Fold this sequence. Notes:
A hairpin with a 5-residue loop joins strand 1 and strand 2. This protein has helices at 3-18, 22-33, 42-45, 60-77, 82-101, 128-144, 151-179, 249-263, 266-269; strands spanning 191-194, 200-209, 212-221, 225-236, 272-278, 284-295, 298-305, 314-320. The chain is elongated, with a radius of gyration of 24 Å. The chain folds into two domains: 3-144, no CATH class; 185-320, no CATH class. The protein has 327 residues and is of the alpha+beta class.
Amino acid sequence: MDLFSHVLVAYLVTFGIVGFKPQYLAAGALAGGLPDADAFFFVLARRYPILQHHGITHSLFGVTVVATAGAFLGPVAAAGSPFVYFLVMEVGGICHILQDGFTHFSVPPLAPFSDRRLELDADRAINFVTMAVSIASFYLLLVVERNHVPYATYVVTVYGLMVFFGAYFAIRLAGRFAIGRHRNVVGPKAVPVPTTNPFKWVLLSEEQTDDRLKTRWARYVLGKGLVDGPYSVEAPLVVPPHTGSPTNAREALDWSYGLARKASRILPMTYHFGEAFQSAAGAWVAVWYSLEFTAFGRASAVKVSFPEDGSSPHVTSTFYKPTHPAV
């Protein structure tokens, strides 16, 4: 999850443990964000992989080391119990691990003793809904309400945020459990792909044979089941020899996929899908978009336009709103 949500959730959990104790709230919130400080180790991570992002700092060992340091340094910065400082910082760090493991961005909670990963695939690594709520919440708590409203109003806000995140995580887990029962619809190795909307999911499978990739997917809505699909698309990894311009959707997809993979770093790294259609002028256009990097109805995509005169296609990386009604 995003840094703002990590810090806010740790803040809320710390409040639930110790109440309104500013020094402990600050320590717990800090510990909730510290695991992502591994981003500063990117140079060392090339030589020591354990320091890479979502490495040792996202483990119980890593957060315990930080909490132990906090137990000694916390009372120096602000009066308080070393034990309570350790407790809130340990819990804050564990909250971070669980939140990241809740997404499709795995973490190694038992490192360095085990490489086993935690990955529930119940949420997106970065969800703009929770990010927006978290940023707005910090502004509300620290700017609008701080020293301006009665304590009871602040408490209502905090518990309201607890209810929001509790319900959010519960809905995500319910969707993850429910969609798992439909995997065989698109293939035995199908994976659930969460969308920004916690009620909507994509169930997807990919199969690569020789030099072709076949993708099959369906759309799922919590409470309604599979509402659209399954759909499938297949294309060669390398652009096949051809002349002129495409005459149908199949040719547009086949001729564009290799170009799209070369034009985007995101596309080959994520689950993706493609569609082809004719523009208003009659020229064929193919769009390949990521099913993971999406927000507000648009997706990170590569658009390949084929001129009618058969000249070189125009390849553009953009955020694209799919025309397919199921997406």
